[in-house]
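Input record (Table S2, row 249):
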Amino acid sequence: MDPRTVQYYEDHADDVFAQYSLGRSGIEKYFALAFPPGAEILDIGAGSGRDLDTLIREEYEAYGVEPSRRLRELASENFPRLSGRIYSGTLPGLAADIDRKFDGVLCSAVFQHIPRELQFDAAFDTRNLLKPHGRLLLSIPKDRPGIDSSSRDERGRLFTPIVPEALELLFERLGFQRIGKWETADRRPARSPSRLRGTQRPPCHSAARRAPSSCARSPGMARRAPPELNKGISSAIAEFLSAFFSPAK
Ligand SMILES: C[S@@+](CC[C@H](N)C(=O)[O-])C[C@H]1O[C@@H](n2cnc3c(N)ncnc32)[C@H](O)[C@@H]1O
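Output record (S-adenosylmethionine complex):
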């Protein structure tokens, strides 16, 4: 983990909660594609708890991990069904702390906060939290403006530059197979419209049902995957075209 980043989330937990709990993350539309019904899911870096709450509402047996004590408190206070379901912990090192395995892991907008030299360990840890054939739904911000030469934003949070293909390779080295990949648009209100115009794609979740080429849902992403696609550990990687967690101003 990166102590400065984790401290940022603790120190600004109230602001972060207010910012994040207002809207949906956008990743929730992939839950039913990535995770079988009723699966046990771990949401790593649960933040405000918004995705965890959605998972539980959608009848997954879901738990979270969040390093910030204050964010854990706020999530449980504001989403009562999360009470008692959020562990304390950070990647890497979680698998040693959490003595159980899950059918699925959600890791949304967290990996960029992990220093490059710890990303392999973090991915390894994620694998160890999954049951055989478990699913990983991972998102990373594809672009994060305003990062300095030490990869930090103006508030000191680490934003390790990530090339999606390199991250995929890292997970593949650990035995994961990619079964889906999507790009989603920046959900923030018109922060940089010109850049978005240049990069936005049609929403892949609806397009996938029409089976286009670039963001087609693989057959393995059907709600119940055919047995041959359940071999190995699978990952589904969603990329945000732009960071949706710009600092609250
Ligand atoms: C950008 S927020 C995303 C929150 C949530 N996943 C969402 O999409 O709404 C990043 C979260 O990851 C947590 N975090 C930062 N470093 C972490 C680490 N090494 N392991 C686990 N969580 C971490 C932060 O405390 C914060 O809540």
